[in-house]
Amino acid sequence: STWAARNPSARVIQPRCSRQISEAQKALWAIACQQRVTKKALLDNAVQEYLTQQTSKLEEIASNHSITVEYLKGLIGGQTHYHNSWKVQRHNALLHAKALEVNTGTKYSLTEIQKMVKDDERLQNLMWEELEQHIVALNEHCDTKIHGVRANNVTATQDVLVTTDRIAKELTGLCDHTGIYATLLVTRGHINDSIQSTWTTTDNSVEFWEDVFGHQIVDIACQYEQWACTQNQNLLERNSLGSLHKQITKAISSGLEKITNKKHIVMNYHSYETAIIETYGVRLVGWPEDVRFVNPSVIGTVAEAQKLRDMLCSGTCFWKKLSKSELDLFATELNAHRVASETIRKPQKKRSDAGIPRKRKAPIGGKENVRPRKIAHSTHKRTLPKSAVIIPTSDEEDSDEDT
CA-CA distances (angstroms) from residue 337 to 277, 283, 327? Predict the structure, then answer.
């Protein structure tokens, strides 16, 4: 079975069809490539000549105005490093719509599709509603390419290999830039997947697993693969409401145990201020504002539970140990609420018949079904019965021997 088959409700990224290229087409591409190389060389020479003239001109202006060349370059070539978020443009939406229309049997190049769009009067005179539909279709196409599932095991394996290799290169470069340590573990999620487990470590990170956990990273990868295969869950099952509740509860409880250094401590949501903050001096920081602070099992939507889970995993929502000044300030505010007779903890729900005397119910069936009482054992020490056999004394034995 494939990953796409185990996720029937997810959108599938269709594999690309291999394009048959003739020898004549290859020859034309080779000629075009050589022409591009020649044009690029001419452009590079022209740009280098311009830069040489620009440098001499900048030096002349800097000398006349008694400023540095670096300051002048900042005035001339200053630019912002902040960019707006990427959005689908009208031109790209039309190109995507035209490509879906014409690429049924023969696949056209981007240049050919651009010319088709330019010559199509219907696409050039679209109403805003039709253009909005094309933009939505392109957004869905981009989202499918990012979050869609691969159609078969071959393309899934290729995607894993290419992406893992890119991430490994990025981690190695980041290690050289910043001196970080990193370990990347990748394994398959189902027993029928053809993805091979792999791992990547920077520098001597592999020694961490042997020194701390007492296992080589090969053993860790094998155990990780066994755990993943025994899960046997698709995308919906991994992010189900019950699974999210379990993950959130475990993250909050483990964080509370770690920061308080107390095992088997129980999180109290009803009396959080008194049972957790006042007692242990810790606070849960970063809880989402649009999610009620309640027991995770009470959260009823997947979106809210997933948002809280992601914030706990990323460290945005975390446990913080309060300093002495913060704890004193909290205690002062808590005492002020108590003086004002405000409710600090959630009151316990009363019975519907509270205040009414209740009689003990008689056993069903009379005395026959009454459980017999246990026999009370005496605490006095029992005395053993005396033996009837008469044992003679030593004096009696001597007198018998004399006679």
Answer: 15, 18, 15
